[in-house]
Amino acid sequence: MELNSKIYATTAIHPELDASVPPGFRAVAIGGEFVARSGPFYAQWTGERILLGFRVEARHTNPLQICHGGMLATFADMLVPCAAMYQGDFDRRFLPTISLQIDYMGAAPLGAWVQGQADILRTTRNMLFAQGLVTADGEPAMRISGIFKMGPLLESAHPTDPLGLLS
User: Domain extents for the chain?
Assistant: First the structure.
């Protein structure tokens, strides 16, 4: 079977790729080295919630040039802790994942703007429960729900604005 060289191309950037970021979004450094290599991620504070997003690049895609499910899962796993930083009514904590449910609803093709928002449903002394929706170019791509452990407190130079979105 001959491989389609266009589909299996490994070019990092395609000239036709619209690499723009929607207005109001800022690049954010979150989640350590692994997530930094997966990004870049961008965030926006609406006054009520965090919107987190990224542009699908060639390195994020599978052989059909659609965002790999593992990349979308990584994004979902960062979405809830980012939302909790701003939307939660508790001290900023490390939130290791206990359970993450993902329903893939649609594709995120090369060049798509992937954006998510999450809601904190409940917190207990030990756990945080949340759900969210992720879109690709405005169309539903994933529905997520998760349970996260309330880990140790995190120190931050800016505890009320850890991602630097409010200034």
Answer: 26-149
Q: How many CA atoms lie within 13 A of 137 on its CB side?
A: 13
pLDDT 10s digits, 112-144: 999 999 999 999 999 999 999 999 999 999 999
Separation CA 57–CA 76 (nearest Å): 17
| Residue 108 predicted with pLDDT over 80 | yes
- Residues 64-78: b if buried by 16+ CB within 10 A, e if exposed: ebbbbeebbebbbbb
Residues 134, 116: contact at Cβ < 8 Å?
yes
CATH homologous superfamily of domain 26-149?
Hotdog Thioesterase (3.10.129.10)
Question: What pLDDT is stored for residue 86 in this prediction?
Answer: 86
- pLDDT (tens digit per residue) in 19-60: 689 999 998 877 678 877 888 899 999 989 999 999 999 999
